[in-house]
Request: fold
Amino acid sequence: MKMARHLRRHHNLLSVVVVVVSSCCCFGLLLQLPAAADALTNDEICKNGIPAGTQSTINTGEALTCDNNDIIHISGQLIVKSNTRVRAAGMFVDATGTLTIGTPEEPVRDVHIYLNHQPCDINSDACKRQGALWSEGTLDIHGTPKTPWTLLQTDAPAGSSTLQVSACDNWSVGDRVVVSATGGEGTRYTNAVYGDNADENFEAEQRTITAVDAGCVVTLDTPLRSRHRGSWLGGIVPTQAEVANLNRAVVITGPFHRANVERPIEGGQGITTRQHVRGVSRIDHARVENCGRLAVGEYCMHWHVLKSCPSCYVKNSVVEGGVNKGITIHGTHDALVQNNVVYDVRGASIFIEDGNEMNNVVDSNVLMCPSLSNPVALAHFTMDGTGKHLRGRRCALDGHQEHRNSDFDEQSGLYALSPSNHIIGNRISGHDNAMFVNHQGYGVWGIGNAARRVCVASMPFGRTERNVFHNNAGFGWYVNVAFPMDVDLTADGHVSDWNSCLPFNMATGADNAKSFVIKDHVEYFNDFSMGTYDLGDVTFENAISALNNKGAYWKTYRRGINSGPFAKNLTLVDNWSYLEAPGGSALVEFDGLRLVKLNSADNHKPRFVVNHHCGLPNEQTGGLCASHYLLKDVTTTNPGEAALAPTTFYSETSKSSALLLYNGGAQWLNGASNRDERGANLAFRAPDNCVISGYWGGWGNNEWMFCEGLDDVRIVRIYSPNRGTLQVTTAGDGSFEVPYGTSFYSEQKRQGSTRYAYTPWCSGSSYPIDCANYIWPSGYTFLVRDGSEISIAIPSQVDGPMSDLFTMEYSEPLMSPTSITVSVSGDPLLAGGPCLIESTHSRSFITPYGPLIPQSGAWFECNPWQARNDVHDFAEAFSLHLQYNGADCESANCDTTVTATGVTTTTTTQAPTTTTSTTTTTTTMSTAAPLPQGVTACRVKSDASIDAIWDALNWVCTQVSSPCCDPVDTSVCGSCGDGPSMRLQAVANTAWCPMRLSEGYSCVTDGHWCDFGGTMAWSALGSDTCVTLPEALNLPLASLRLCERNFIAEIDKNLSGVAVDERTGNLILSLNWPERILLYNPNTNSVERTVWKEDVLPLLRDAEGVAWLGPNDERDGAYEFAIVEESASRRIVIFDADTFEPTGETYDIDVNIEFNLGLEGITYDRTRRIFYAVQEKSPMRIVAVSRASGGGSLPTQEIIVDDQDQLRDVGLTDLAGVAYVDGGGSGALLLLSHEQKRVVLMDIDTRAFGEERLSVGGIQPEGVAYDASKAILYIAGEPNELMTFCHDEGGGFAADAKSLVGKQRESAATVDTIPEEASSSSSPSDDDDTECIQNFNRRKCLRVLEKVSDLAATQQEDPFELLNLPQVDEMDQLCSRRKMRRRICRKWKTLKNLREAEVVVDDDDDDDDVDVDVDVDDDETAEEVLQEEETTAEVVPRGDDQSSRGGNRRGGGRGMPRRNDT
Reply:
């Protein structure tokens, strides 16, 4: 072997020269150094590598063979010529190195790289380098070109030994080729899948070439088993099999060590190749085989976080016989993947990993699985003993959990988190899904390096053109849930402004959708074909869907004002159903639709399904099930059959006002379904020429009405809570009833961000929820005719959450213009009109599931009303939503400030006046500290506090359970009689209020007044005596703050429980599916041990909560923990804490549960040997189970809490987790709600609850535990979230719990009558002052201001005289040192400024102007102060009725300037 000379022997000379060069910058001197006389030997290369600045060559006919453990380290350049062999444990190209195996100008042939490796711990760095071609420099591999794949030109029937292909450059005898499946003799999906030859119909066939002639007729070594199509079906569908050549001039291979020889689906350990972080990778005409490993990042071919790499490509190459992805694009942009063949690889063939990847071109690749990769379709295939089909899971990988969605659950040929790439000309067959855009089931905010830096479901789509997806078990082109937006992105694909992930510009109302087009797309022999669950703003142009089970599959669709039709020139050929068209609230337009039937002998008549999956409970799917279906230019090739007829259509729900417009007429449901007898709601009388016809079949009965010539009918949609049956009167036609809802489940529809993932969550399960996000697909729909004059009579007035929602949509802005005239009566909040409503009215803020804010829709445009929430409340909730989900605010804009220009919002502070204005207002939302979602401000008597102070202290009430009721302001809570109002304080939750919001504002009569430190409050605990609020519960939860939040990479989903091993501080985590137990080190944030269900207890099902038990004397002091099962067994299972094996001790729990609403959490009182298990809901319960010796099927158990009202009164709508707090003989329980995302503390003996609530936030908290020192609280939640809460100041739970136990025994005297004075008049205490300023105790600071507020309410003293200078200084110092919430500090500053303002008070009721001269702080301008306060101060004269109506969250202080909220 001839090696280049190197500089090693001239090390001393080189050192001298480098010094000279460094001083004179004459780099040319280095090039003039004399070369070394020696060449590197094989052993030197294997042991020491290629030094920087040197070059070595492996020449033709030579071999470089290293020992089994040698990794060739390339810092210089290694050139590999043709006809060579390299064998090593690995090859590492560092940042200065170059590995050149051929160039585009001089490609190589017959190069074989063998990377040897032994089974090893894949988590170790040493193992990752073994068997790896790892490059951080320049990697150039260019083999001799050949046609990588081609198309079959003529049919190859079963038994054929020749193939006529369109190209075969450099194909040779001995090459292996594979021919894709095209359905065999099947004439449609059903008989191809369920016929006698189903396995052959969907099986690719691999053969060896024995001859190839100049005309590209290829002779095979053995005949084909089944037919492979090579011609176009009917001259319409390009059903040509792909023929791929599997041989390449450069082969990179190695051994493959299977994880389980009997179950290939479990994968194993092969070789890997990667370009890591930097450098450039150019690979052409190479083959990688026996590759991939069961870990994130260990892929066959991998671009790892290269960022923009336009020079990177992999072309004309083959990946075969691998696991865990074929080609992976990870954190890389602008690269090219072209003309490759990925065959027989388990997991995704091409994988776009994190969600930030963009502008990569994936072009003309063949991704082929040998047989259909799904067990459902091929149910007759044999099983492997585990219930999993062998051949039906050929390309699935039951491997690492982080990528289970892409590799196993929804195994896909091309799986992408980021859709912002160009998918062009690819051909995918044999997989479960051909292409799937999804987020691994948990990564909607991105995963890996892009975690919390992208909004995956809002990312824009790249070009999608000329793809052919066929013979897949599930979908072809498939998107789970995505509404693409014009997202502001950095050069690395990260979100630069989180506001751009929202569906609308919240300042202007402009539609933020980024529409895209799928062009020239072909699908055949798939089940679901092209489709999605929820997706909008897409157009299928010149698409063909043939021989599929469904021509297309869609659930929810939306079309923005700037988007094209749903389909343009769509051809449907012999599908079992034409398509299953979306429900929703949209214009579903088909501009050119061709229906083709080629098999005239087939009597099956396909159906055109509308409202697909509308009306399902506990979802948002389908919205109001009232879309306009506009079908234009429809043709058919079936002689004697009309293109479309009324019986062609079928609706999956008949309680729908969906409207079909075709053939110059209109069609709607007339009822008569087996699901619902009522059809569309009409607000006109149908003409006499209308015809009733029906669809009757296994899916139910539809009765349709078609009216020829009636093309002016349109839909009215109203998003609203249940206001009773509307009476709609149409002039000249009469009166019509419009009932509430679009299905049996209308009031069970999910509210909030289920589909629009980046809009705020709404916590709760009983709808409607008091939430700033008004998305809620419930309301009313009916049909009207153009020009109608209608009046809508609302029978009942609605109070409470969503009472201000009445968002009306009429027709569609992209249909021909029409209009109606509308009046509304009945509800004084909404009454008004008549108003002319045109079809072009604004759709700002309206999604297919409902509006983001109540200030939306046609009726609000015409007749604005006072709303509970507005765009600013939405922005604040969005800010909190970003915090809860850990959005990266360091490098992206998380400022949700809304400067609303041209957005009409209406609020008022003095009923019944309604003011409408179009202004520019700015509200800045804090992102410093999270608040609970779905919780509005507490209600207090309107004259109980100064308005500005109330505004500043507003967050106190948001920290507690439910909104507090106002017994005086009947517009807020209804009337419960006379009595003192609640004062503003931390105990303000519904357990201490005269009403319960959770019971629909009904009055509580089974309580009594109690005196809590001079403040009168109502106790609904049902006791004859008042329980003194325990001081111990005032401190521990309030002093906890979120100090760390992690997403555990080793878990993909279903983290359900957490316990602390008190010996080590490690965490024991439980997952409910697939069931497993993990040992997690919170100090290193790493999983130290994983035990699967099969390893410990095969019968363990639906593992939920986990509890630490400590030592068991009956087992010689062995340490133990317990797990509770939710539904199947309803039992407690005890495990050894060292071996993680079950001890045999179990306890059955005798409770009745509904599905998926069972036992969620468990904890243990080791002193009294009692387990406490919590049942989630229906009903919520706490069960105490006595631990017998050795366990038993009938343990002593007691349901200690079964009072739903008691639990709801403290804001618990579900019980997700529980933790025992030792109180020295007795104790308390920490109760966690995943819906309300809060923790409360309950004394076990007295059943009393503490006043403090800890809002934990997070995605879906499921488990709670604390460490041995009682100073750290852990919250575990789905999918893989672990939050750690620490105390701001010293102390922990244990001491506080003991204090609780003692103080719970104390009681106050029963108060039988309501005292005249309900509040103390004492001044703020010195202790509070000290705690406020010295210890930065926010609760103490707020108590100071709270008492000032109460004193001010007596109107005896100027409230600002009560704020002496030291107290003012305290607040100033807290704000300057950032120890107080920013929102409070802003309001505090404004309060001081307003006090110093010269305010002219007008005793008249007119809205006179107010002159304000404001002194400002140095760091804030007067304009900013006034802008924060919305620029106008309204002076309210002293009077008897200062209450505000309709949900205004700020009470009116007497004699003080008050904001005009216009």
Summary: The longest strand covers residues 587-596.
